[in-house]
Design brief:
5-stranded mixed beta sheet, 5-stranded antiparallel beta sheet, 10 strands, disordered N terminus
Amino acid sequence: MIYYPLFLFSAFFLGSVQCLYFHIGETERKCFIEEIPDETTVVSHYKVELFDVRTGGFTPPTPGIGMNVEVKDPDMKIILSRVYSFEGKISFTSHIPGEHIICLYSNTTAWIGGTQLRVHLDIQVGDQAIDYAQVAQKEKLSDLQLRIRQLVEQVEQIIKEQSYQRFREERFRQTSESTHQRVFWWSLSQLFILLVMGFWQMRHLKSFFEAKKLV
């Protein structure tokens, strides 16, 4: 797949909220790398605005302009790929821990004058992605029950974060051990080559001196 100018925003969102906006051109693809634990919900609210050359500002786009959204898990498998309108909500759940790539790009290249889009993005991860007001209304929870529910969700998110940290430490340890082993065998190979070359040079010199009757 051909990627046009690609911008990577790397962040570690665990039970956090990240609000930002960025500009995107006709053929640009912008991606975010999110380190997410497994079984964690990610919700992103977004809004797209079109640059108006007459006013010099950004206005709501015309119908038909939206965003293509593609999400890949750490194994580079696509877990979400669809076209959204110019405003809405993106939601997905991670199934394996690690770096998830979220890419956004326009669903059209027929903009007048090659103008730009401004994309407002509000990323919510973990328990922050839960709408507790809606949960309380749906399940008819009291204030105390809702607070307990929030605490339970936060504890579960902390457990997921700790599990993910252990996963990262184990992966780093395996990488370090693998690198150390490769360096050891490479050094051993170099030593063996030097010994063989030294032995060959001694044999060659001995043969040379014998041929010259110096030994």
